[in-house]
Amino acid sequence: MDRIPTERRETRTGLLIILSSPSGAGKSTLARRLMEWDPVLRFSVSATTRAPRPGEVDGQHYHFTTPEAFRALVDQGQMLEHAEVFGNLYGSPRAPVEAAMNEGRDTLFDVDWQGGQQIRGSALGAHAVSIFVLPPSLPELERRLRARGQDSEQVIAGRMEKSRAEISHWAEYDYVLVNDDLDETEAKLRAILTAERLRRERQPGLGPFVRGLMEEQGA
Ligand SMILES: Nc1ncnc2c1ncn2[C@@H]1O[C@H](COP(=O)(O)OP(=O)(O)OP(=O)(O)O)[C@@H](O)[C@H]1O
Ligand SMILES: Nc1nc2c(ncn2[C@@H]2O[C@H](COP(=O)(O)O)[C@@H](O)[C@H]2O)c(=O)[nH]1
Asked: Coiled-coil stretches, from where to where (predicted)?
């Protein structure tokens, strides 16, 4: 499906696209692919107290920070949401999200179920579209965590232990995708994003995307 050209987007309010899943189901991989497909989509770079993995770049994958600095940001109200996940703190900085929304740019979040709940329950929640990504099976989830080659056996065991609890929140989400074939899942995500952008335009009168289509047809 074609992506909506930037110049035809609704320019008033961006969407908040929330991706959640048990660790290792493929959120970051899918998020990366979506960003390549639509470079205008903004990725919400989270702050975390977790140590960087090999190859992770500060400011690109995460804002790596200390627990003290993280708590100060929370106390100052600078986090849209935050949670403890697998023993570390993670949170989504608020200001870049609001700036993107005001520019009409959509923001993509890779957050756990607690983050999903907090964003949906926030003042910006009316603009949220939430998607839960399931692995095809738990053994495949474990295989993926191991194949990623970045976590110790102890960390993998801890994440597998928490996977059922994360999965138990699937029904809180607008969409649920089983990430079996990566290309197919990416295509479904694109379709969801395109449909939700069109839905956002269903205001009185035609939105910019539909208006552009009509003009092309000479209507
Ligand atoms: N559909 C798929 N089929 C096979 N392997 C996949 C698929 N999707 C992702 N993977 C692989 O699974 C591993 C975990 O994926 P990824 O890091 O994207 O998961 P994640 O959900 O972002 O994990 P975390 O929550 O820990 O950040 C990676 O090695 C990735 O290449
Ligand atoms: N509530 C939030 N959860 C977040 C955020 N950023 C990432 N995450 C989730 O943490 C786990 C582990 O991530 P990893 O990079 O250490 O593998 C994963 O489920 C992410 O979705 C956040 O800002 N808020």
From this structure: none
